[in-house]
Structure formats: structure tokens, C-alpha cells
Amino acid sequence: MPLTDTFVRQVKPSKPSGDKHADGSGMYLLLKPTGKYWRLDYRYLGVRKTLALGIYPDVSLAKARKRREEARTLIADGIAPGADKREKKLLQIAAATNTFEAAARQ
């Protein structure tokens, strides 16, 4: 049964190691005393991997589901979602450091 926004808002962890509440298609809510984390388990080239989708409440249930679908589309296209996420992050960092000030200092 899929998760609901009310359940996600009100649920508390019952053990210190964390609880998992499945939403479907590999996505689940990981509850720890430190917070609520959205995760996606998937297989890529026969290896089980986990992708972090965000932290609740910064990432809502609807946004986490959207990110899950984007990741599943990448998997269907033969692209590893974790590697794609790292690549995009590196490109953002490179774009942020590529400023006029940095060029002038060189």
C-alpha cells in the first residue's frame, strides 16, 4: 500500500537503527532518530544499489515520487542514476567556480 502524506508527517522511528516504510517501485522512507530520508533501491548491471532522493520535509512525498520516476527512466535508458547525479553535481560546481573573478585571479 502506498504511503500517504499524513502517515509520513506523523510517523516516528521505533528503533534506533531505523525503520523502513515502503511506497512501491523500490522507494521507501527510512526513519531514524535524526530524520526521515527518502531512498530508492534499484539494480543496475545486476548489482543492488541505493539512491538518496532527499530528506523529509524538504522533499515532499510527491517530489520524492517524481524523483523516483526520473531515476527509473534513467535505469530503463541504461544510465546509472547515482553516476548521473554525481556528474550533474560536478557540473554545477564547475559552473559556480567559472566566474570572472576566478579568471581574473589566474
Name a few traits of the molecule.
106 residues; 4 helices; Double Stranded RNA Binding Domain; 4 strands; 30% strand
Describe it for me?
The chain is of the alpha+beta class and 106 residues long. The protein has a single domain, classed as 2-Layer Sandwich (Double Stranded RNA Binding Domain). The protein contains four helices and four strands. The chain has a four-stranded antiparallel β-sheet with strand order 1-2-3-4, covered by helices on one side. The chain is globular and about 55 Å long. The chain starts with a helix and ends with a helix.
Number of helices: 4
| Fourth-tier CATH superfamily name | Integrase, DNA-binding domain
Integer average pLDDT: 92
Order of helices and strands: HEEEEHHH
Determine the N-to-C terminus distance. Answer: 57 Å
Strand residues, percent: 25-35%
Report the CATH architecture.
Answer: 2-Layer Sandwich
What's the story with the biggest beta sheet?
4 strands, antiparallel
Q: Strand tally, please?
A: 4
How does the helix and strand content classify structurally? alpha+beta
Which segments are poorly predicted (pLDDT under 50) over 5 or more consecutive residues? none
Shape: globular
Number of domains: 1
Radius of gyration: 17 Å
According to CATH, what is the class? Alpha Beta
Task: Write the CATH fold name.
Answer: Double Stranded RNA Binding Domain
The oligomeric status of these chains comes to single chain
Q: How helical, in percent, are the residues?
A: 40-55%
